[in-house]
Amino acid sequence: MRVSPQDLSNSLKKGLEPVYTLVGEESLQIQELVDQIYDKAKSEDYLEKTNYIISKQTDWTFLKSSSENYDLFGAKKIIEIKLIGSGPGVAGSKALKDYAINPDPSKILIVSAEGLERKTHSSAWIKALEAAGCLLLINPITLNQLPRWIVETGKKYQLNIASEASNLLAEKTEGNLLASLQEIKKLALLFPDQDIDISQMASSISDSSKYNVFDLSNAFISGNKERTASVLESLKAEGTPETLILWSLSRELTNLFKVINQKSVKGIWGPRHYLNNLEELAKKVALSDLKHALQQVAKIDASIKGSGYQDPWQAIRELTITFKQEHLV
To answer: Is the pLDDT reported for residue 68 higher than 60?
Structure first.
């Protein structure tokens, strides 16, 4: 069954599907929809979650065992499979098609696919997953569409953003969703439950903090741990939400994963110095360390949402300090 991203909430009200497949270009858009599915699943006692970051070395037997060995005690679980920049491969395609024939009734499978080629949308494994559950094809938000996205996102934070103000923010963030979201969250703190006109927006933008999440991203990717720690502590002191910081780090790790897999920075947006840092870092980081870091991101995300046992800020600190420790000076 194919469902538009806008209709997901209505679909979830009718009940959960055994399989959800989300295909898009922007991780923030995908994650927002995945969160909706998680919230609904959590309300129906799906409290355990396992994440798999797929690479060429992935052993897909985990999916086969999930479908063949039903939990005798009926424990409800969520399995999330993340495809970043490339499809599942021959073995993965077969595993997904086989699972779709007979999904485990005690589990929900979420397959999130970021940055896949458009021709992949008609592949056999996607068609099989669509037949077994729900498929969402997520179109990227264009620069012309961004003002409307800003207005709609503002409503989620109890803000009524005027069209002139949303146009100004879209212009200043140059189409970057993460930067736009950071500004909306700051507005929610400065002007709670208020109408936001162009003067308030201009004031908020001009009064930007000493650091933003992009300073954190650049420090993290460049391997400068002292600056990374300094920026992180500054963001914490300024009240930057953990979710926003985690999104930023997750985005950089995802981009790094893409570079390692495709051996180029093709399809990744950013200034030349940023892309150069990504290329250099890709040569120094072991894929196993990168996959471990992405797994840590998933655990921190669970803690932020109340289903984990870590202190989110401490876990984020540890991630930024320990990542690539053995590979960079």
So the answer is: no
Range of the domain at 46: 5-137
What was the pLDDT predicted at 74?
61
**Closest C-alpha among 104, 121, 46, 31 to residue 78:** 46
In a domain, residue 327? The reply is no
On whether both 30 and 126 belong to a single domain, the answer is yes
Q: How far apart are CA 98 and CA 176, in angstroms?
A: 38
Beta strand pairing status for 107-114 and 134-137? Answer: unpaired
Confidence class of residue 72 from pLDDT cuts 50, 70 and 90?
low
Residue 329 is assigned to a structural domain of this protein: no
Q: Are residues 167 and 70 in the same domain?
A: no
Q: Label residue 73 by pLDDT band (50, 70, 90).
A: low
Average pLDDT for 8-36: 92
User: b/e map of 273-305 (b: 16 or more CB within 10 Å)?
Assistant: ebbebbeebbeebebebbbebbebbbbbbbbbe
CA distance 36 to 144: 26
Residue 306 and residue 259 share a domain: yes
Q: Report which of residues 160 and 117 the model is more confident about.
A: 160
Beta bridge partners of 114: 24, 84
Q: How would you list the strands of the sheet with 19-24, edge to edge? A: 48-53, 77-84, 107-114, 19-24, 134-137
